[in-house]
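Figure 6 in text form: structure in, sequence out.
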């Protein structure tokens, strides 16, 4: 039986832990309030993370407004004392029983889903598709979705959701790793990018832009980014896109055919959620090509199924990261294979979380990634 090393203290005087902490909690829809609540305690295979910084995600905005995709004990997350936020990083300040995988003082970034660890999907590594999703009593953990997240001073994390980060990586940059992990997972589920194969990324939002960086770092050629905003397309170029297409000026399907000499690409990572994106993606890939949907339209949309079937086109969908893709994305960013910092546009303190969310939601000042810096270093 495994036991903690006798010389591993479970907490340290260097990081005094108060009994209570500041945390944002969700009341009804759109009702966030800053409260004091007890600092949570790590259980077996868990650590207490002092949250140092957290990025606002479009999914946080969805959860705060509609509840879904957060789900707590089979219901919506409203009026349950729930703290949202899932793209955070911080410092390990307390170890649960038997934990020796991390040390007090380690700087870490987190991925969202620990899953339940006991269902078929979790055992397959598909912990974002946990069959016990949202049922805490069954062990399911997805911080910011079914368990408390990071718009707070502290959070408890399963050790499987943590990745070490190097000293020279800033807090803000480390909050972007889980977004890059989602893009990495999108490429994974399509079978993994093979160096030299072409990738189109539709939609230069945070996941799309990180998708460009990851695909290029993995050797994809060409990487083509399509979108409507020149500033974001230019960011895509800096992240490694070989070509960018402003769909306001050129038909994206025609552009991809032009850029690939009529051959099309092997993979499309769809991050726009535009109603016609899947039909366009189908005409960007070549026969037998693969499309991963990482965004979706608000309403059902018509799809040319016959075209997909006749051309042996494979469609995948992902909700968030999985299969430890976040760890691999962290490795690429730590090796400076692309500059994730480019998408970080604004910073606010913990007291101004509602303002940070408003900037992200309304794209105030063309905000892309808004980071809440909780600790000043
Ligand atoms: Zn997110
Ligand atoms: Zn599970």
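Output sequence:
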């Amino acid at each position: 039986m495994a036991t903690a090393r006798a010389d591993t203290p479970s907490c340290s005087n260097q990081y005094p832990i108060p009994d209570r902490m500041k945390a944002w909690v969700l009341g009804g829809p759109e009702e966030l309030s800053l409260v004091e609540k007890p600092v949570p305690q790590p259980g077996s295979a868990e650590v207490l993370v002092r949250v140092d910084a957290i990025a606002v995600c479009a999914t946080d905005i969805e959860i705060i407004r509609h509840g879904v995709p957060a789900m707590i004990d089979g219901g919506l997350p409203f009026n349950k004392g729930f703290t949202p936020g899932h793209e955070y990083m911080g410092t390990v300040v307390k170890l649960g029983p038997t934990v020796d995988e991390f040390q007090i003082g380690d700087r870490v970034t987190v991925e969202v889903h620990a899953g339940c660890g006991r269902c078929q999907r979790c055992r397959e590594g598909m912990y974002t598709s946990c069959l016990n999703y949202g049922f805490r009593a069954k062990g399911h953990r997805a911080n910011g979705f079914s368990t408390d997240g990071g718009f707070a001073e502290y959070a408890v994390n399963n050790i499987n959701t943590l990745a070490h980060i190097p000293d020279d990586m800033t807090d803000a940059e480390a909050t972007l790793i889980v977004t890059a992990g989602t893009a990495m997972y999108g490429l994974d589920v399509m079978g993994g990018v093979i160096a030299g194969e072409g990738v189109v990324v539709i939609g230069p939002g945070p996941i799309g832009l990180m998708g460009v960086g990851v695909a290029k770092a993995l050797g994809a050629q060409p990487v083509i980014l399509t979108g409507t905003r020149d500033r974001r397309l230019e960011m895509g170029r800096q992240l490694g896109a070989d070509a960018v297409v402003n769909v306001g000026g050129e038909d994206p399907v025609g552009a991809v055919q032009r850029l690939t000499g009529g051959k099309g690409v092997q993979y499309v990572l769809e991050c726009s959620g535009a109603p016609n994106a899947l039909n366009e993606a189908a005409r960007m890939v070549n026969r037998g090509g693969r499309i991963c949907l990482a965004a979706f339209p608000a309403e059902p949309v018509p799809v040319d199924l016959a075209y997909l079937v006749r051309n042996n086109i494979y469609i995948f969908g992902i909700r968030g990261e999985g299969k430890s893709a976040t760890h691999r994305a962290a490795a690429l960013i730590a090796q400076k294979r692309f500059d994730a910092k480019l998408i970080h546009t604004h910073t606010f303190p913990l007291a101004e979380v509602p303002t940070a969310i408003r900037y992200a939601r309304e794209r105030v000042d063309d905000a892309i990634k808004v980071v809440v810096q909780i600790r000043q270093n």
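Caption detail: DSSP finds eleven helices and 17 strands in the chain.
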